[in-house]
Prior knowledge:
binds adenosine-5'-diphosphate, ATP binding, AcgluKinase_fam, acetylglutamate kinase activity, kinase, Acetylglutamate kinase
Amino acid sequence: METLVLKIGGSTLESLPQAFYKHVHELTRTNNVIIVHGGGPAINDALEKNAIEATFHQGLRVTTPEVLQTCEMVLSGQTNKYLVTKLQEQHVAAFGLSGIDGELLQAKLADQTGALGLVGDIAHVNKQMITMLLANNYVPVISPISMTKEKQKLNVNADSAAAAIAKAMQAKLVFVTNIKGVMSKQKEIIPFLSKKAIEVAITDGTISGGMIPKVKAALSCIESGVQESIILDSESLIGLATHTACGTSIRLEEASYV
Ligand SMILES: Nc1ncnc2c1ncn2[C@@H]1O[C@H](COP(=O)(O)OP(=O)(O)O)[C@@H](O)[C@H]1O
Ligand SMILES: CC(=O)N[C@@H](CCC(=O)OP(=O)(O)O)C(=O)O
């Protein structure tokens, strides 16, 4: 059975149609499905309500202890349980957990200079835990909040958590976001992106904001031997079985980039 990591972005999470959840149910018939979710916009709302200011650096949230508390509350509480419920309504055996639970994800500080604050990169994935859930026919639904070896909680970008999990499980990685793919300057979907093209597109500003961690995460997966990494929206995912070209596929080799 093929293993599939579906990363669901906060940008699209609350507007996913019922057909999406039904499609996930279909996918579980022939794949081991692992879901990793974000929740950026919901975190923004909660921070705003509490008058806590937050800034971003290269698509990553600069995280103070106060910001971290809100991120955990939203991601591991509100968003995780929202998704688990939606999936269960469509008969998916969803099992919600965060990177902290069962020491699923071990993180380390992403930026030793302290500029990003309490932001983590995944250092280790507890594969056994994921395998155990999959073997019992559960679909793990994972919030990216994680902990260091020393038990310091860290805010981990959901794209990079999904990539770490896909690498560990050698799974195909699909980013489901609010846009049909990575867009060129001419606002056309770029079907294939290579490492070189990604570097150019970030430098010249074609790729910005939340798309930066996504393409970087996709690339890191491909570089570590993951077969495929693709960025698309929920509609395209549902149509993936019938369409040949869909979204943006991240490749190692050079491909034309406009
Ligand atoms: N070249 C690009 N192509 C597509 N989207 C881009 C590009 N550059 C920046 N973006 C932005 O990235 C967003 C997706 O990132 P983000 O909002 O973090 O999504 P998610 O919550 O799904 O992780 C898009 O909606 C778009 O505004
Ligand atoms: C460090 C960092 O940036 N963490 C992210 C975690 C959530 C996330 O990644 O949500 P999306 O998938 O919706 O972008 C944040 O605080 O927004």
